[in-house]
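Example with several molecule types.
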Amino acid sequence: MPRSPLIARTLPALRRALEGLRARKATVALVPTMGALHDGHIALVRLAKRRASRVVVSIFVNPAQFAPNEDFGAYPRTWKADLAKLAAEGVDLVWNPDVKTMYPEGFATKILTEGPATTGLEDRFRPHFFGGVTTVVGKLFTQTRPDMAFFGEKDFQQLKVVTRIARDLDLGVKVTGAPTVRERDGLAMSSRNVYLSAEQRAAAPVLYRSLKDAARRLKAGDDIKATMKAAADAITEGGFALDYVEARHAESLAPVASLKDGPLRLLVAAKIGNTRLIDNVGV
Ligand code: PAF
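Resulting structure tokens for the full complex:
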């Protein structure tokens, strides 16, 4: 039987648990999550286990990163299954604060970032999002003081933003991104995939397919504008309402005019029914 991780739900319990974990100069890795764990999260945990001697996973569905019209209430919460998965991976500690512990009465601080957070991708369509992510990730970093932290590349802009805050605030955390884990048909794993009906699920791989086609065309020398227009058309014909599908510089996320301005990353966000999915690929 795998041993259940320690669970901390209050800051004093977290501090005590971390003191224990840090004994004998152990290195600590943090994997921040909102729960509803899938194989993408498990890949992050496994990478963290290879790189650090102790692994902490946070599970906190962060209200600050959802707009009032978004899915905070409906977001899948699968605590028992999550804990069983983390026990099977040999995770040491689960940090699972409630909203009042994370944002106590009178909480009035926000971490505001520019640079990758204001490049007109997710920030254009979810203007509240990065303020919520940066504030909670900043708090998770200061609460757990990890040596390193692991985030999925599926949320590519988020990865750039949290890397920036770790550097800009001298938090001493090395942020590492890990490749997106995909279903067999290419759909990026996401906790939100459970919202898809059977028909929507069958349509969803068009996102990855269109990005891969566009990457192939760009590598072969096709024009960026025409290639991205073809990707947009394929995604729309596939049943999605597109927020954006764009070629950007893979580091700065700035718009690019040609392959020579690269390395490039192609990023998409689109809605099918009420479910909004994102994905990206390198070129
Ligand atoms: O990617 C997520 O699951 C969340 O945005 C994160 C990084 C855990 C912050 O709430």
